[in-house]
Specification:
CATH class: Alpha Beta
Largest sheet: 6 strands, mixed
GO molecular function, one term: ATP binding
Number of strands: 9
Protein name: ABC transporter domain-containing protein
Domain ABC transporter: 5-231
Helix content: 25-40%
Structural class: alpha/beta
Number of domains: 1
Distance between the termini: 27 Å
Keywords: ATP-binding, Nucleotide-binding, Transport
CATH topology: Rossmann fold
InterPro entries: AAA+_ATPase, ABC_transporter-like_ATP-bd, ABC_Transporter_VariousFunc, P-loop_NTPase
Length: 231
């Protein structure tokens, strides 16, 4: 089995509080992993460490066999959409996406225009990002992610602020992306959404992953919500 993401014994503390107490997680190519846990469980901390936005005390984090010492080669393995998207407010959404495409060395293609249309951003994509709503910022980031098409897309609460049409588009594009060889990790507190979209779920509790398995193996006759409450 090929593991795209490998996390071993990951530990992280804030002051004297240890948030991650030895997280172990292996994500194989083609997974749509729902990363769930209570508020403050360390979901965002874990994602920020994977994407190099936070340091950590000890442990191993690798994507495609590369760790963060590989620099740009490591960063090109993923595209990260944080819960709060902070970018230059005077730049247009389209210019920002083109800037990201240049960083990832992605040539211009018709997929960008296609994604702008399906997310209904035609009238907004040329406007300054500072005029965007919270939901529009997430749409812009999703357009960039699917256009760049990295090995893995990592998202922190990606459905926050999305209108119903955008949620449907999100589901369809995630499925298409994975069918073509992509891998997805996204944190969410919406357990019903995770149950419908994800192929696997990892539950973070007490600073460790206490359960990581396929949805069909976890739920059986129960809902993911009931499994989470019992964990």
């Amino acid at each position: 089995m090929i593991h795209l993401l490998n996390i071993s014994n990951l530990k992280k503390s804030y002051s004297e509080k240890q948030v991650l107490k030895g997280v172990n997680l292996n994500v194989k190519k083609g997974e749509i992993l729902g990363f769930v846990g209570a508020n403050g469980a360390g979901k965002t901390t874990t994602l920020n460490i994977i994407t190099g936005m936070l340091d950590y005390e000890s442990g191993v984090v690798e994507i495609n066999g590369l760790n963060q010492t590989a620099g740009l080669d490591y960063k090109k393995q993923y595209f990260f959409i944080p819960d709060t998207v902070n970018v230059f407010k005077n730049v247009s959404g389209l210019d920002w996406i083109h800037f990201l495409m240049n960083l990832y060395e992605i040539e211009e293609n018709n997929k960008l225009e296609e994604y702008v249309q399906v997310f209904q951003m035609q009238e907004s994509i040329d406007k300054p990002i500072g005029t965007y709503s919270y939901g529009m910022l997430h749409k812009m980031s999703l357009i960039a992610a699917f256009t760049i098409n990295p090995p893995i897309i990592i998202m922190d609460e990606p459905l926050n602020g999305l209108d119903p049409n955008a949620v449907v588009v999100f589901k369809d594009l995630i499925k298409s992306y994975v069918d073509q060889g992509g891998t997805v990790i996204f944190s969410t507190h919406l357990l019903d959404i995770a149950e419908k979209i994800c192929t696997t779920v990892a539950i973070l509790k007490g600073g460790k992953i206490i359960l990581h398995d396929e949805i069909k193996n976890i739920t059986g006759s129960k809902s993911l919500e009931s499994i989470f409450m019992e964990a």
